[in-house]
Amino acid sequence: MTALRDAAQALAEHLDNAIVKSSPCKYDVTTVEDSIDDFRHYKFKKFSGLCGHNLGPILKNQVGEAIRAEDGMLAIQMLIPILDFFNKWSGRLDDSYGEGGMFVCEWNEQLEKAISLLPAKLDDDDHAVIEEIMQSMEKLDDYGWGDDVGETGMQLQEILDGTDTARSFKRARQYY
Fold first, then answer.
1. What burial class does residue 54 get, using C-beta atoms within 10 Å of its C-beta: 0-12 exposed, 13-18 middle, 19+ buried?
2. Distance (Å, rounded) from C-alpha 43 to C-alpha 76?
3. Residue 1 pLDDT grade (very low, low, confident, very high; cuts 50, 70, 90)
């Protein structure tokens, strides 16, 4: 009886996951920018205010929703204004608790998830988005966080160059 209940519960969870993945994401770049506009006028002093209370929830909820919907390119597009706003404040805030670095790592994890969801073939618009996010990532070097996103940046460059064999191999395995 327990095995039957466990099997039914596993089937229900699988069905729930399938429904969530097939549902379109209710957020987009505009919702991210609107959320940032809500606190754009704040005078931040520490990264805890910028990241923990403002950018972190957008990263977790809105970008996380795009990843759950398995829309990697949408997630990447949403990550750009988040990083741009972070970069705008990076040189002026106290990071005595290391929250800036933790945010960069969380942001990078979401980017890695988004990259894993990209289709094997990208069009010119997708390439432009990847180039835009790479430009935003370059600014992290100015404040010492470039190493935290270095491997992801190399993977994005490989995607642009058409040499991303790890992602291509992973996609190919999914179909066989």
1. buried
2. 27
3. confident
